[in-house]
TrEMBL record:
Family to which the UniProt record says this protein belongs: Belongs to the glycosyl hydrolase 4 family.
Protein name: Maltose-6'-phosphate glucosidase
One biological process term in Gene Ontology: carbohydrate metabolic process
Positions bound to Mn(2+): C169, H200
UniProt entry keywords in alphabetical sequence: Cobalt, Glycosidase, Hydrolase, Iron, Manganese, Membrane, Metal-binding, NAD, Nickel, Transmembrane, Transmembrane helix
Domain Glycosyl hydrolase family 4 C-terminal: 195-413
Organism: Garciella nitratireducens DSM 15102
InterPro entries from the UniProt entry: GlycHydrolase_4_CS (IPR019802), Glyco_hydro_4 (IPR001088), Glyco_hydro_4_C (IPR022616), Lactate_DH/Glyco_Ohase_4_C (IPR015955), NAD(P)-bd_dom_sf (IPR036291)
UniProt cofactor note: Binds 1 NAD(+) per subunit.
Signal peptide residues on this chain, from the entry's feature table: none
Length: 438
């Protein structure tokens, strides 16, 4: 059986140890001969890599391990690039969230002005990694979950149309896992779903079990009362609130079941009212996940052992193995991917990057037909996809005007004046990362 060589780009990510543990747990399904970590911040990566090295030594000593900041070393001889970079790291996420809040506009990692700012930083970073891959391992595939995935996907469609990149998001997977719990199923894989939208902006239209039984009525009854809040699945307060708020999002269109991210577009006033402008999600992550992961990694390095270490397998991330296997073994697994519409949603822009079910095989994704979507979703999606396209156009043309239009068009921003005020402050904050705008 062929064994694969993988590089994780963004090796210093808080998600890396969980993903490495997950990959090792799936070696029987997806054998690995070489695992590399690549990051452009060697000091940050060193701590994660130090722990991963010991994890591999204990669990899979035959797998060669490399951690590097040298692109040639990282991207030579790889079959898959798994990319989760965050250009600007949490320091910039914090500003993305806090600057709009000063103007009464919500501050969020991938939605509204914060998502636009993050997109303007991510495009260059993701293109750079894609180019390294094509230079050093031209047959490799990049599995990208770096955010904001919608903007990154549109940028690679425009600027690298022939590249072997697949953009995927774990939010539908997280929600489907909750749906399976609500239904008493042992796994989300017992459900067959129909879903359409943009990334972090979509709806389920059909959910059936493998025998074809319609599971939507039972789910809708639950979501109408509880959103996606599920006992035993409690997370941090901000996520619990998001899962519960899906109840109100659902009420706006009870013919479908919504992605949780729609709360930012349909209830922006509520989100602003419930935000603390001095302590946002970035602060929660810095004080929570980042502290936990880095202190556990330091412990592993100090003890030269994982004994007593609380890092755990990120089973939720096993969709990455499903995706790699689909490419490697032509499994034709049905997965939600962010792909060019090309008529799959028949009454929507054929050049839009949409999130829809695809069959994935060794030639990449084959999108399934969605057909005509209703006016409500179509209207919302046309506005949002225009925001995403304008951001990419602004990045390419280095255009202040287009970026101002993008912010103005976002459903989260009340006026062109507020858009301009926020934009001007974002430009100052992002000097190091954005192309210069004219
Ligand atoms: N698509 C999804 O559903 C999904 C789910 C979870 C997280 N994410 C994304 O995964 C990424 C990582 O999240 P995190 O919270 O662990 O962030 P993090 O800051 O802990 O890790 C990101 C790493 O990327 C590195 N990096 C930044 N720019 C780089 C570049 N140009 N080249 C190489 N490395 C670079 C940073 O140094 C950092 O170590 C983010 O983009 C996040 O939005 C996506
Ligand atoms: O605020 P963060 O950094 O914790 O999370 C932001 C990411 O949120 C989504 O991923 C979630 C997932 O959907 C949820 O169920 C849980 O398991 O955690 C994941 C990561 O925190 C979203 O899909 C990502 O794009 C966001 O980056
Ligand atoms: Mn996502």
């Amino acid at each position: 059986m062929k064994k694969f060589s993988i590089v994780i780009a963004g090796g210093g990510s808080t998600f890396t140890p969980g993903i490495v543990l997950m990959l090792l747990d799936h070696l029987d399904k997806f054998p690995i001969r070489k695992l590399k970590l690549y990051d452009n911040d060697p000091e940050r990566q060193e701590i994660i890599a130090g722990a991963c090295k010991i994890i591999l030594k204990e669990q899979a000593p035959d797998v060669e391990f490399v951690a590097t900041s040298d692109p040639e070393r990282a991207f030579t001889d790889v079959d898959f690039v798994m990319a989760h970079i965050r250009v600007g790291k949490y320091a910039m996420r914090e500003l993305d969230e806090k600057i709009p809040l000063k103007y009464g506009v919500l501050g969020q990692e991938t939605c509204g002005p914060g998502g636009i700012a993050y997109g303007m930083r991510s495009i260059g970073g993701v293109l750079e990694i894609l180019d390294y891959m094509e230079q050093y391992s031209p047959n490799a595939w990049m599995l990208n979950y770096s955010n904001p995935a919608a903007i990154v996907a549109e940028a690679t469609r425009r600027l690298r149309p022939n590249s072997k990149i697949l953009n995927i998001c774990d939010m539908p997977i997280g929600i489907e896992t909750r749906m399976a719990k609500i239904l008493g199923l042992s796994s989300r894989k017992e459900m067959e779903v129909r879903y359409f939208g943009l990334n972090h902006f979509g709806w389920w239209t059909e959910i059936r079990n493998k025998e074809g039984k319609d599971l939507m009525p039972q789910l809708k009854e639950y979501v109408a009362k509880n959103g996606y809040a599920v006992e035993g699945e409690e997370a941090e307060d901000s996520w619990n609130d998001t899962f519960l708020k899906a109840r109100d999002v659902y009420a706006v269109d009870p013919t479908t079941l919504p992605n949780t991210y729609l709360k930012y577009y349909l209830f922006p006033d509520y989100v602003v009212k419930h935000s603390n402008p001095d302590y946002t999600r970035a602060n929660e992550v810095i004080d929570g996940r980042e502290k936990f992961v880095f202190s556990e990694c330091r412990k592993v390095i100090k003890n030269q052992s994982t004994q007593g270490c609380a890092l755990h397998i990120d089973e939720h991330a096993s969709y990455i193995v499903d995706l790699a296997r689909a490419i490697a073994y032509n499994t034709k697994e049905r997965m939600l991917l962010i792909v060019e519409n090309k008529g799959a949603i028949s009454n929507f822009d054929p050049t839009a990057m949409v999130e829809i079910p695809c069959l994935v095989g060794n030639n990449g994704p084959e999108p399934l037909m969605v057909g005509k979507i209703p006016q409500f979703q179509k209207g919302l999606m046309e506005q949002q996809v225009s925001v995403e396209k304008l951001v990419v156009e602004a990045w390419i043309a280095q255009s202040y005007q287009k970026l101002w239009q993008a912010l103005t068009l976002s459903k989260t921003v009340p006026s062109a004046k507020v858009a301009k005020d926020i934009l001007d402050e974002l430009i100052e904050a992002n000097k190091e990362y954005w192309p210069e705008l004219h």
